[in-house]
Predict the structure.
Amino acid sequence: MTRGREARPHIGIFGRTNVGKSSFINTITGQDISIVSDLAGTTTDPVKKSVELLGIGPVVLVDTAGFDDRSPLGKRRIKRTREVFDIIDVAILLITDNRLSDTDRHLMAAFQSEAVPFLIVHNKSDVIPWEHDAARIPADVGVVDFSSISGQDPRPVLRALEDIVPASAFKKQTLIGDLLSGGDIVLMIVPIDLEAPEGRLILPQVQAIRDILDNDAVAITLKEGEVAAFLKKTGIRPQLVITDSSIFREADAVIPKDIPLTGFSVVLARFKGDFEAYLAGTPQIADLQDGDRILMLESCSHQTSCEDIGRVKIPRWISRFTGKRLHFEVVAGLDTLPQAITDYALVVQCGGCMITPRQVRNRLKPAIQAGIPVSNYGMAIAYVQGVYDRAVAPFMKKRQAQSVKLKG
Ligand code: SF4
């Protein structure tokens, strides 16, 4: 499946200065690149670089310069650690000289408490050979003995990395393949209006087409105005219809009730959001009260095709549906929230097409832990347009089947 840069698995590279991060990165990527800041401890944002790793595929390496013994302790380091942990799927901790610094031990504890799979690479082994007992590393932590300076074969590192990566981050996943059988027909309804990007489809639409083809099914894409005539003229009865969420109500009216209908952003919500939390939180839109604050989380910091949806349409639809005076605040990118999460009565997350599943889930974690209802753009739209039950039904059937299987 095609992935945008930000949706690729993110690998954090950690290690104190002088452990040979630059040469390590050059060796495992087979390229002469440098993503490492020259001034350790001065970088305020992690530096990212898209690369291709042998046997693993496209990933984003995240440099964490500044996490070394000389960087200042305190709030700034903790904040940066938090930010990096929120975006990475897996970590590599470089050490040398059979030595773990206090920072290394702190990082290992944090990897474990944050459930970030990690690997230790003992680098520069040509200078000081690896001695497991000297470093006092717990036996269950994977260590690869390595020497990037002498141009060692990177495959042992890449194989070890492949072994610890979470399936959700690196393995090929399917958007809707589990709902399809070979030869099934999926009809996609895509408005080509002023908000549609010039000359192309948006990422979730392209991903859905590729997923349908990967699963030996048939993808038909139509504009909303052509759907009724197409179904009548051809007599085709699709096994699934996926619509742009902004026209849920129109699609609901035109697609016969016995044909499953959902939205691209509901598909994405199940694929990379916290679908169970969305299912629990979305109906709580009906309980909103006058004066409640609603946090809209957009995962792009640049201009997006969701801008109008998240900033104008969803606030208008939710306000109209509830009949309450509500305050909406939009936070773009992965920035810090403007106020405490407990100040909000509802959090609505975008589809997150440009970021990884772990990043979406970490973004929602504070709200879920605080007991704040969370929803998703597509699910919220479906709810306020009265098509929620229909939009989630295809996935509920799958969910019930899985639960029966587990019980059996
Ligand atoms: S705001 Fe969210 S859904 Fe929209 S393009 Fe960005 S990541 Fe994708």
Q: What stands out?
A: Residues 5-170 form a domain with the Rossmann fold fold (CATH 3.40.50.300). The longest strand covers residues 47-53. The radius of gyration is 24 Å. The chain has 15 helices and 14 strands.
